[in-house]
Design a protein that fits this description.
159 residues; alpha/beta; Guanylate Kinase phosphate binding domain; Rossmann fold; 2 domains; four-stranded mixed β-sheet
């Protein structure tokens, strides 16, 4: 489960959706090597817990991390066995429509997220960075494509 310094959105529960922590708590965990990756996004810190990842792997589950490009770089450099999928919006205009439709973001936050999304989409074009790119045109179809990739046999990684 991820840790974040952002405030919970409506309906989000601490310990279920995220571990919501203060910036000081986050920085202490990062300093103690408590994350396999961590980064700042939209003015908030996010990190994937090393302990949670290990627990999931030990239980036979396939851990799936929702991370941005700095996290991808950190995981790639760590040598951890991983496959990388980029979930792309159909277009920047559609991404903006979806962000505005949530009704959970300020104008400044939306603009910051759109700017970051442009950087992420440009990074995704780098050869070899991602094993698969899925365009989220239709949520159900994109989910099925992701699920098929996640549960594909390991030999499929080299194709």
């Amino acid at each position: 489960m991820s840790h974040t310094t952002r405030a919970p959105r409506a309906g989000e529960v601490h310990g279920t959706h995220y571990h919501f922590v203060t910036r000081d708590e986050f920085e202490a965990l990062a300093a103690a090597n408590g994350f396999v990756e961590h980064a700042e996004f939209g003015g908030n810190r996010y990190g994937s817990s090393r302990a949670t990842l290990a627990k999931q792997a030990e239980s036979g589950r396939v851990p799936v991390l929702d991370i941005e490009m700095e996290g991808v770089k950190q995981i790639r450099q760590s040598g951890l066995p991983a496959r990388f999928v980029f979930i792309a919006p159909p277009s920047t205009a559609e991404l903006e429509r979806r962000l505005r439709g949530r009704g959970t973001e300020s104008e400044a936050s939306i603009l910051k997220r759109l700017k970051q999304a442009e950087l992420e989409m440009e990074y995704a074009k780098t050869p070899g960075v991602h094993d698969k790119i899925i365009v989220n045109e239709d949520l159900d179809a994109a989910y099925r494509e992701l699920e098929d990739f996640v549960y594909a046999p390991a030999v499929a990684e080299s194709s």
